[in-house]
């Protein structure tokens, strides 16, 4: 089968998802966001499987990609709710770092237009190495940048889910068609060959005188 529209589109979408996941993984590593790092790693692995299955005509790999896509959409919806503090969630908690560190999103201090300053308090009784970071001038707050990243992931995943289901249906139809044609060929091959009797002319026997 050649590169049909659905199959080529799914390959393109998987490539976009792979690039988006790699970009997100880099910035999550910089911010020590361990929960998103784990999710991004699984996303990269499954997208590679989906890409391989689409190129090599392996419907089972695409099914795995389809199931994971639904879970990935759910995870990104949770991230949006987390940063928008929906349902009692708070972006100031250490949930994204599994409560093992106090790191926050990398975009918190390095967003577009942000000016980062390390301020050392001059109050007596405070250790000299104690300091805090002041961030001002951000064009867009870090939580909205995280929301935009998750929204892009959801959009790509939903489109990929639709095309993955379409490609799976195409593969299944072709397999059914191939099995049907192969079954007819096998049946005709197994038929016992008919015996052909070669007829030869018989010479008349002359009468003895």
Automatic annotation (TrEMBL):
Domain of life: Eukaryota
Entry keywords, A to Z: Cell membrane, Membrane, Signal, Transmembrane, Transmembrane helix
Record bears the keyword Protease: no
Signal peptide: 1-21
An annotated GO cellular component: plasma membrane
GO biological process: regulation of sodium ion transport
InterPro entries, A to Z: Na/K-Atpase_Interacting (IPR008516)
Membrane topology: Multi-pass membrane protein
Family the entry assigns: Belongs to the NKAIN family.
Name this protein carries in UniProt: Sodium/potassium-transporting ATPase subunit beta-1-interacting protein
Organism name: Taeniopygia guttata (Zebra finch)
Membrane-spanning ranges: 34-55, 62-86, 151-171
Subcellular location field: Cell membrane
Gene: NKAIN3
Entry keyword Signal: yes
